[in-house]
Specification:
This protein is α/β, with parallel strands linked by helices. 24% of the residues lie in helices and 27% in strands. It contains seven helices and 17 strands. The strands form four sheets. Strands 1, 2, 3, 4, 5, 6 and 17 form a seven-stranded mixed sheet that branches. The protein has a five-stranded parallel sheet with strand order 8-15-9-10-11, covered by helices on one side. A three-stranded antiparallel sheet has the order 12-13-14, with no helix packed on it. Helix 1 packs parallel to helix 2 and helix 5 packs parallel to helix 6. The longest helix is centred in the C-terminal third of the chain and has 21 residues. The chain is elongated and about 65 Å long. The two termini are 15 Å apart.
């Protein structure tokens, strides 16, 4: 059986696309390799989504997933390994299953960006983390560091400051990119220390992370003893499976305009993996709605 629409990626963009597809009376299958909801699950508190104040990211994704399932959408935890274009699109998964659909929405999002230090792989999972909400509890009453200057880093530092003995917030510039309100909240925390105009130059520890080396703009270095390091320096697009069939830009984002149309008819892009200026929860949801509308129209044109 061919679905009307296939969605690769079950984040906010993908689930919104599925919801709008269902509402249009079409059949839809969402394929997600990890957890429905995507990176918003890592946000302990979302305050910038219209109409929802002081809500966790996981609650938003849980509600949206329930909406999709209630409307008749299907969601499978499967990793997509290959895509074949044609009048009917075909998706291959790691389990060997092949799914077919008349149109397809790429909503694979992005992955955490690493520090690219020589010794980094040793400490990932052994002190270096990418999700304060997921791993913060392991470092209660311990000193930690957060690296980054955007909202994600600021939110991580706020969250960790409630349980950790000390939080070093390290940013390579003198000003944060994130919201001023979050910065002001952090300034009121007595256990948070800003380490600005600095970068992380090294990690050290025997079996697990014991500290980091920080280098300032003048080349001066100092060691900070920390048990955990939370890296929040952005993300890189997770579009590898589309690299052979879709046009990607120099950074690996799918080339698609505000209509979410890609270089291949019948394939649309939505969410953080699409080339665009603003990557936020609200824009991911908007992409999902636009991509679903286009995909449904494309499916109708084949019949």
């Amino acid at each position: 059986m061919a679905y009307d629409v296939l969605v690769v990626g079950g984040g906010i963009a993908g689930l919104t696309a599925a919801l709008y597809t269902c509402r249009a009376g079409k059949t839809v299958l969402v394929l997600e390799k990890e957890n429905p909801g995507g990176q918003i699950n890592w946000s302990p508190c979302v305050e910038n989504y219209p109409g929802l104040a002081h809500v966790s990211g996981s609650e938003i994704s849980d509600r949206l997933l329930a909406q999709v399932l209630d409307q008749g959408g299907e969601v499978e935890l499967e990793e997509v390994t290959g895509i074949e274009d044609g009048r009917v699109k075909k998706i291959r998964t790691a389990s060997g299953t092949v799914y077919e659909g008349y149109s397809l929405i790429a909503a694979t999002g992005a992955l955490p960006r690493k520090l690219n230090l020589p010794e980094e792989e040793k400490y990932i999972g052994n002190g270096e983390c990418f999700c304060a909400l997921c791993d913060g509890a392991f470092y209660a009453q311990a000193p930690v560091a957060v690296c980054g200057g955007g909202n994600a880093a600021l939110q991580d530092a706020l969250y960790l400051s409630d349980t950790c003995s000390r939080v070093y917030l390290i940013h390579r510039r003198s000003q944060f990119r994130g919201e001023a309100k979050l910065v002001e909240l952090l300034k009121k925390k007595t256990n948070v220390e800003f380490v600005l105009n600095s970068r992380i130059a090294g990690l050290y520890g025997e079996e697990s992370l014991e500290g980091i080396t920080v280098e300032d703009a003048e080349g001066g270095k100092k060691a900070l003893a920390v048990d955990g390091l939370f890296v929040a320096i952005g993300r890189v697009p997770d579009n590898g499976i589309f690299s052979e069939i879709l046009d990607l830009d120099e950074s690996g984002y799918i080339v698609a305009g505000e209509d979410c149309k890609t270089s291949v008819p019948g394939i649309f892009a939505a969410g953080d993996g699409r080339r665009k200026a603003v990557r936020q929860l609200v824009t991911a949801a908007g992409d999902g709605a636009i991509a679903a509308t286009g995909a449904c129209r494309y499916t109708d044109s084949l019949r």
